[in-house]
């Protein structure tokens, strides 16, 4: 028996409250437990237990060893589970929640490919723009824009979120092209709104490096990205939006970026959120697949926007 095994045995003695109960747990003789604890004390060169005929108490060193032994046992359990995950075929139900737009345009392609690779995994995708309680509603993963308010949840950044100011060529022809941020206040805007978010202005950094807010004039509001897109494509409003909403429509014929010389701070990033660090294999593999599909360094939607790397850059 090695030192690690003896430390776990010491922990069991303390948890069970006696040598006899620890021996029963392992289905071995009490004397074996006693002998192994004595060997552990010899190896460490310190007394761990004060023993009497009927009881024992921990020394200061023993209390510290028990604390570390509990951490060691947990680490060993995690290590074994990690190893098992690598050779287990993922199976079972994976419950995912996300906002409607992210789910339809960025998760469904991942889900379709994932279930071809792992047909034993069933997936439930709940599309909901409200922020739900993952734990009480039993979800394994959530994909959201912005970090969760619940500090007990674990958030992993998936991709950055660049901001854009967009309009159609026909809109520019009708209303004129804005030359400054102040010009936007006079133009009709389409703005995202929800229970938690309401766009009333556009954040930007001025020529002196100071953060400013430019009020806008929303004539149309919606909590749905596709509705906002349709409004902008009707040539009756401009829109400020995270890049992932409208990336496939940005070219010289549909949507044109406005005021690209202005420095716009990034919007809140896209995050994957989960309730526990110890992820089942199906959850971990799906998270890896989503990260690979969306792209962490440069999100896939940015590849569809010509010249984005030169737009809205810091001064």
Task: Name the features.
315 residues; alpha/beta; Arc Repressor Mutant, subunit A; D-Maltodextrin-Binding Protein, domain 2; 5-stranded mixed β-sheet; 14 strands; 38% helix
What is the level 1 CATH name of the largest domain? Alpha Beta
Total of domains: 3
| Oligomeric description of these chains | single chain
Q: Superfamily at the CATH H level of the largest domain?
A: Periplasmic binding protein-like II
Query: Beta-strand percentage?
Result: 15-25%
Return Rg in Å.
29 Å
Which CATH-level-2 architecture of the largest domain?
3-Layer(aba) Sandwich
Main β sheet profile:
5 strands, mixed
Shape: elongated
Helical percentage:
25-40%
Q: Which class do the helix and strand fractions yield?
A: alpha/beta
Determine the N-to-C terminus distance.
Answer: 64 Å
Report low-confidence residues grouped into runs of 5 or more. none
What's the overall average pLDDT, rounded? Answer: 89
Strand order of the largest sheet: 4-3-5-14-6
CATH topology-level name of the largest domain: D-Maltodextrin-Binding Protein, domain 2
């Amino acid at each position: 028996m090695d030192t690690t095994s003896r430390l776990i045995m010491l922990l069991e003695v303390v948890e069970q409250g006696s040598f006899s109960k620890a021996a029963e747990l392992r289905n071995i003789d009490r004397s074996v437990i006693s002998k192994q604890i004595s060997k552990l004390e010899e190896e460490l060169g310190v007394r761990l237990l004060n023993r009497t005929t009927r009881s024992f108490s921990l020394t200061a060193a023993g209390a510290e060893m028990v604390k570390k032994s509990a951490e060691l046992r947990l680490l060993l359990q995690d290590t074994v589970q990690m190893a098992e995950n690598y050779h287990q075929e993922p199976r079972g139900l994976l419950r995912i929640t996300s906002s409607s737009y992210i789910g339809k345009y960025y998760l469904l392609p991942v889900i379709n490919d994932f279930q071809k690779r792992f047909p034993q995994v069933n997936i439930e995708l709940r599309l909901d723009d409200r922020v739900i309680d993952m734990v009480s509603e039993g979800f394994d993963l959530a994909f959201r824009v912005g970090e969760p308010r619940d500090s007990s949840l674990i958030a992993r950044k998936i991709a950055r979120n660049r901001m854009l100011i967009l309009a159609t060529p026909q809109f520019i022809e009708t209303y004129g092209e804005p030359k400054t941020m102040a010009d936007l206040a006079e133009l009709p805007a389409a703005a995202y709104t929800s229970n938690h978010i309401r766009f009333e202005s556009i954040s930007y950094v001025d020529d002196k490096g100071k953060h400013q807010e430019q009020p806008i004039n929303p004539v149309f509001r919606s909590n749905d990205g596709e509705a906002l897109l349709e409004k902008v494509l009707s040539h009756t409003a401009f829109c400020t939006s995270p890049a992932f909403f409208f990336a496939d429509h940005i070219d010289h014929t549909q949507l044109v970026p406005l005021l690209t010389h202005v420095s716009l701070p990034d919007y809140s990033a896209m995050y994957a959120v989960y309730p526990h660090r110890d992820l089942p294999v199906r959850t971990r593999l799906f998270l890896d697949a989503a990260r690979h599909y969306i792209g962490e360094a440069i999100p896939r939607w940015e590849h569809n926007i010509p010249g984005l790397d030169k737009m809205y850059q810091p001064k």
